[in-house]
UniProtKB/TrEMBL annotation:
Residues 72-329 form the D-isomer specific 2-hydroxyacid dehydrogenase catalytic domain. GO terms for biological process: amino acid biosynthetic process. This is 3-phosphoglycerate dehydrogenase. It comes from Mycolicibacterium elephantis DSM 44368. The lineage of its organism: Bacteria, Bacillati, Actinomycetota, Actinomycetes, Mycobacteriales. Belongs to the D-isomer specific 2-hydroxyacid dehydrogenase family.
Amino acid sequence: MRTRPRLVYERWTDPVAADILAGGDIEVVKLDLNASDEQGWAALESAHGYQVATRTDVVPVANGAQWLAGQPLVERCRQLLAVCSAGAGYDVIDVEACTRAGIAVCNNSGPGAEAVAEHALGLMLDLAKKITAADRALRGGPLGDRLALRGTQLLGKTLGVVGLGAIGGRLVQLCAPFGMEVLVFDPYVDEKTATAKKVALVGLTELVERSDFVQVTCPLTEETRGLFGVREFAAMKPSAYFITTARGPVHDEAALYDALVNGGIAGAGLDVFHEEPPRQDNPLLRLDNVVATPHVAGITEEAARDIAVATATQWQTIFAGRMPPRLLNPEVWPRYCDRFHEILGIRPTARDTAAVE
């Protein structure tokens, strides 16, 4: 007989996820980060699916990192079949550890791309037009010479995009009316795709040397950790701006600070930091040529709902015994299917058909 699947979640981005899953075949259990460790582990050790808590959510909680999907959690939760992250980022999940254990890993790339891409464009416009700088000057008064707030335009400038996924691709579309030359660094994009999107594939060195605006929209992986350091910032134009809606560890904060205070680059727009939320004494927050937001690029009413719908429907797909649409480790599929059959009593299928009893 088939076992009823059990899904543990920390929170939904929108209540619609609970509505979609209510009354179905999936038992849904909330993980309370403020409860005792014993209660948390009791829920997770019997879970078949885990909608993993995000790093920003758990770091302020004592021992919060234990609730991330790392090697210790994977080893302890022997019934776990799949883990999913809420958005496109999946650095809260140890993909290799999950793959070794036969656990499917999914994200929810796509539904929040519009929100993040718009935010990235907003940071670029803010820096170019000195909107926040002008607001600070006006409120601080007396204003003095307003010509000192002279900005620049996006029209005809060169945009460098690091990571041409859903977010980077949408950002390119949003920037099209400005007639910008678009350079892209993404080792996983081929020339055919680049041509279709009307962008030029280049190496990272060429991108930072030529771009007036460098936009980082890639995920945090072992390949991208520390991607921007002293060398990359030194290669940028003194008039260029660095903007990131990716993850903090993709860039070296100390190297960025030095480039900003020494005139190596003109400014930065930051939605992500190494420590989140950033400490009030973070030196980057004291700079007038920095515009900062607290990892809110993807937080809009529309994105929250879209992500929640995608999250809930993906879990329905998983526990119906079908291949999830945003599977990050497809190589796990054969072993995952064996474990799924052993634990839940049905064998998944990669086709859009009913699972096999």
